[in-house]
Structures are given as C-alpha cells and as structure tokens.
Amino acid sequence: MQPSSWARRSPRFPPTADRFHQLIRTKARPELSGRALLLICFGPQKHGGLRRRYALSVAKKASSSSSKPKAGGKSKAANADGGLQAAVETSRAAASGVVIPRPGKFADVLGQPRALSTLSSAFASGRLHHAWIFHGPQGVGKFTTALAFAAAILDPTTQISRADRLPTPDPESTVQRLLASGSHPDLHVVVKELAKFSDDASTRAGKQITIAKDVVEAHLIRPAALAPALSSGGMASKVFIVDEAELLDRSPYNAPTQNSILKTLEEPSPGNVIILVTSAEDRLLATIRSRCQRVAFGRLPQSSMNEWMRRTSTELPHDAAPWLLEYADGSPGDLLKALSTGLWNWQQALAPMLADLERGKLSGDLGSAMAGLIELEAQRLVKASPNVSKEASNKVAADVMFRLVGDHLRRGIRTAAGPPGAINSGREIPVRAMQARLKCLDLLGEAERQIDANVQALFACSNLAAQMGVVMASVEG
Predict the structure, then answer these.
(1) Count of Cβ atoms closer than 10 Å to residue 271 Cβ
(2) Exposed (0-12), middle (13-18) or buried (19+): which is 227, by Cβ within 10 Å?
(3) Which DSSP helix (H) or strand (E) runs through 90?
(4) Is-contact 189 86, C-beta < 8 A?
(5) Which of 221, 226, 396, 465 counts the highest number of beta carbons within 10 A?
(6) Which run of H or of E encompasses 324?
(7) Long-range contacts of 34-39 (CB under 8 A, 24+ apart)
(8) What's the pLDDT tens digit per position in 126-184?
(9) How far apart are CA 144 and CA 134, in angstroms?
(10) DSSP E strand boundaries for 85-212
(11) What is the Cα–Cα distance from 448 to 68, expressed in whole angstroms?
C-alpha cells in the first residue's frame, strides 16, 4: 500500500505518514490502523484537518486494496475502515470539547456497597452478562461505576483484591495506560453531544434533546458488529456505555432508537458488553429492560457525602451549606450542579415570591423571574460547552428551576403534615393546604412537558405561576 498522491506531496507529515504505512505493511493486524490513526488525529490542532483527510484517505485505500470477505464474515479492511472512522469521530469530539472522564477504580466509588457487591460477584463468577442497566438518582456515581467496571473487564490483569474484595487491575498495564490517555479503541462512550460530529447534516443540526439514532448507529450498533481493535484477553473485548440512556427516545411509546438496538442486545457478539446508564429506567422499553442485568444505585449517606467533599476539596458557603446539602439529598452530582448554577442565589431571589404565593398573594414578577434565571443559566451552559445546543441547555436549566420550586412545595407539605405520628395525635392537619401544594406539583409536571415541547420558558413559567397562584388563593379564600 502506498500513500495517496496528495499525501506524498505534503512535506508536513513524512515521519508520521511513513510510520503509519510501515505499521500497516508490516503487521497483518487490523487494529494497528486504529492505533496508528490516533498518532495522526491527536497531533497539533493546526494540522487537524490534514490529519483527518489523510486518515480517511488511508481508510479508503485499505478498503479498495483488500480481498473480499469470506461468506458470512467481514474483511480486515472493513473492520479497519470502521475503526478508522470511529477514531476520526472520537478525535473530532475530543478536540471540540466533548469531555469523557477517564476511568477510575471501584475503590473510588462511594456509598454504593450493594452495586459494587453485585458487580464484584459477577466478575468473580467468570460469567459476565452482555447487557446491563445502571439505574438510580442523578449524580450518585452510576457513570463513574460504569467506567470503573469497563476498566476492570477490559484488562486481563484484573484480580479480586484481598483488601476490599473488589476487581482491581494493574494500574501500569497496557490497557490501563490506554484508558488513562483516553485512547483505548474498544471503550465506546455514547453521549448525545456526539451528534455535533455526525456525518449526517440533519443530525448535526439537531437540538440534542435526545440521543440521535444516527449517533447510536455510528457509535454502538456498527462498532458492535466489528471485531475488537485490541486482543487484550480481558473478560470483555469491547465495552459500550450509553450515558443518559433515558434520552434514547422522547417516549417509550414511540421508541425507534431503542428498537434499533434490540437486535444488538438479542444477538450479542462474543465479548461485547453494553451498559445503559439512566436516572429514569421507566423510559426504557420493557423489551430492553428484560434483556439486561439491572444494578440499582441509591443516594449517598451523609458520611459518604462528607468523604466525597473531602476528596474533591469541595467547600460550601457557610450560610448556604445546610440548604445546599438538603437540596443535594445524597447526590454529589446535584451538589456540583447547585454550586455551578449558583442555586443558593436563586433560592434567595425566589423565596419571598414563593412565600407570597403560598399565602395566596400572586406576584406578577414570579414567572418572569423564573424565566430570566433559566435564560441566564442556559446562556452559561452554551458558553461553557459550545457543542451543547441552546434547546438542550434550556431544558437542563428549566429542570433545575422546577426542581427548586418542587422542593419548596414538598417542604411546605412536610411542614404542614408535622412530625411522624402527628396525624394520630389529635393535631388538626391543614388538608386543603397540602392538597393545594400537591396540585401545584402536578402543574410543575405540565410545565416540564411544555419545556420538552420547546415552549418558550417565559410563557411556561408565567402560566405556571398564574395557575399556582389561583390554586393557592383558593385555599386562603
């Protein structure tokens, strides 16, 4: 195989180009093409376009010069071409701000003893199920655990540690070094932001409200049908992690993307492991759930939250700490989100208006104040990560706002109900006030659906504030 004509004319890459073709000529192993491509794609940013063009030209050359596949199989060229294209898309995403955390260790996971025990038992048995669902509240360590699980089962050096009885790989192994550098070709992480790097123009222009079907096909279905790039000898040869799997479709009643992966789950290739990470398991099809091993995650106890804050050097403002910890409710992810959003300031700004609302005094500023805070947070999210769409940012910001208002209403319900046993103590319970707050929670759900349908935040929040005002006024009246 010889370099393409334009590559031979280019004086900028002779060492890398020669090394690339030397690897392909001297090694009859298709995975080396993907590994060599990483040398090309992860070079200086100013040469990124040329590197990608060169990589794709080699892929086409490999595809045209190889023999036809045997009946029922795939040629090495087809496998190399798929690996090359996936590596190119991954390099584009990495260079453009889609950051995937590096896998850690099981010992880094806090407050999830039952989940870790389930995974450790599966590893120790030597028989690994091919599909998993990690489900539980947001921000409690599901994705972190999925990465640690992938690092353990991809590595042949992994052994059950005598100290904590957890699967522990050799940190200096080849697999761990590849994972630490973010260049392991057989760990595939599927996130909705990959839509920005799709070959399909309509997918690139999408609003990233869901994980696009094209993204699932490019980063899960097609790679799952190919041979692994590395023959590492681990318990799994390839691992696919789908983060926020509840976003595969808008509704389980109209789920073309989930239906598209059913065959991959029903007829898995040997060595493939798929992990669906979700905080809303009910949005996955029953046919998906029935084919997966489920692992439940819970909220962290306060001791684990304290340990997490110590490890991450997270400090809380003294006056806001009790409220922030109550809001986080055992979720480090929610606590980080509250700190980055400045949620304590939101609480301070909205609390007087929400208190007036509960007394039946509707403030005309409540809806506009909520919408304004949502808009400011959406702008911050877009600025922080240009690959995130404005629509997706609006939804994230609105979810935070509605969670804040919902927590305020639930706190009012708990206060009205009194301590445990108050109902049987003869104390008069303000039933109408509790019912009104429950009705307001239903109205919050309707506002969330409006945001999901791309209704403007100002309209949704103003309508919500007006309706809640009518409900609460009826109690006071």
Answers:
(1) 19
(2) buried
(3) helix 76-95
(4) no
(5) 465
(6) helix 321-328
(7) 34/80, 34/83, 34/84, 34/86, 34/87, 34/185, 34/229, 35/183, 35/185, 35/229, 37/83, 37/84, 37/87, 37/88, 38/87, 38/91, 38/183, 38/185
(8) 889 999 999 999 999 999 999 999 999 999 999 999 888 999 999 999 999 999 988 89
(9) 11
(10) 131-135, 159-160, 167-168, 187-190
(11) 53
Distances (CA, A) of 455 to 211, 359, 375, 389, 462: 20, 29, 13, 16, 12
Q: Of the candidates 282, 209, 208, 219, which has an alpha carbon nearest to the alpha carbon of residue 252?
A: 282
**Residue for token pair 């700190």:** 339
Residue ranges of E strands in 280-380: 293-296
Tell the residue number behind the tokens 């002779």, with chain if given.
14
Residue 110, SS3 per DSSP: coil
CA 112, chain centre distance (Å): 19
CA distances, 335 to each of 302, 316, 338, 402, 406 (Å): 13, 10, 5, 16, 17
Read off the pLDDT of each residue in 365-389 and give the average, rounded to a whole number. Answer: 90
For the residues of 6-65, what is the DSSP string, one character each? HHHH-TT-HHHHHHHHHHHHH---THHHHHHHHHHHTS-GGGHHHHHHHHHHHHHHHHHH
Sheet holding 238-242, edge to edge: 187-190, 238-242, 272-278, 131-135, 293-296
Q: What is the pLDDT of residue 429?
A: 63
pLDDT in tens, 31-63: 333 444 444 444 433 344 444 444 445 444 443
- Rama region for 237: left / alpha / beta (φ>0; ψ in -120 to 50; rest): alpha
Q: Which two tokens stand for residue 288?
A: 């998906």
- The answer to whether 63 and 34 are in contact (CB under 8 A) is no
Residue type, 53: R
How is residue 96 written in tokens?
């453009």
Structure tokens at 11: 């004086």
